[in-house]
Amino acid sequence: MRIARAVNNLIEAFERLPGIGPKSAARLTYYLLNVPQGELDKFADTLKLLKANTKICSECFNVAETNPCDICSDKNRDRGVVCVVEHPLDVLAIERGGGFAGVYHVLGGVIDPLHNIGPDEIRISQLIKRLDDQGVKEVILALNPNMEGEATCLFLKRLIPKEIKMTRLAHGLPVGADIEYADDMTLSRAMEGRREY
Ligand SMILES: [Zn+2]
């Protein structure tokens, strides 16, 4: 039996998403075939507007509706404390935990030589520039405790001026754990218990 081309195209599109295998891709596609056209149109519009209606904050590189984002433009947040994370999802996780009143810097990845990601492929130079411009007193490294996160922390340690306090958020986070998936309590403890790096 030949699968209809439109069906096959959507299955292939779903398969390109992270965490979706061929079976899930097929299940989602056949599910959508039963959804009324009006709902499908709304879904398609939401997809189309995803990038059109979001901006990347030019200060912290988080995804937002405005540039600068609401965190960077919040006068109550301490711009002297910068929490360095890998992805926008990590900002969400730390904000959910509450208790952090500084600002963020989203690197957009970590140094990963196996996948050809060097320091120039992530936003390290932008971070160093911010430290200068913004009079930063403390940098909190909130990178995942795995090999790539470790390598990135070491690289940053060499670049960041000695006068700036560097702390590492690791306490309570199991090795190999993803910040994105850590529960709120663990994350806020990890933030409180951060230690000098
Ligand atoms: Zn921002």
Automatic annotation (TrEMBL):
GO terms for molecular function: DNA binding; zinc ion binding. Pfam families: RecR_C, RecR_HhH, RecR_ZnF, Toprim_4. Signal peptide: none annotated. The keyword DNA repair applies. A zinc finger (C4-type) spans 57-72. Keywords: DNA damage, DNA recombination, DNA repair, Metal-binding, Zinc, Zinc-finger. Residues 80-174 form the Toprim domain. GO terms for biological process: DNA recombination; DNA repair. PANTHER family: RECOMBINATION PROTEIN RECR. HAMAP family: RecR. May play a role in DNA repair. It seems to be involved in an RecBC-independent recombinational process of DNA repair. It may act with RecF and RecO. Belongs to the RecR family. This is Recombination protein RecR. It comes from Candidatus Amesbacteria bacterium RIFOXYB1_FULL_44_23. The lineage of its organism: Bacteria, Candidatus Amesiibacteriota.
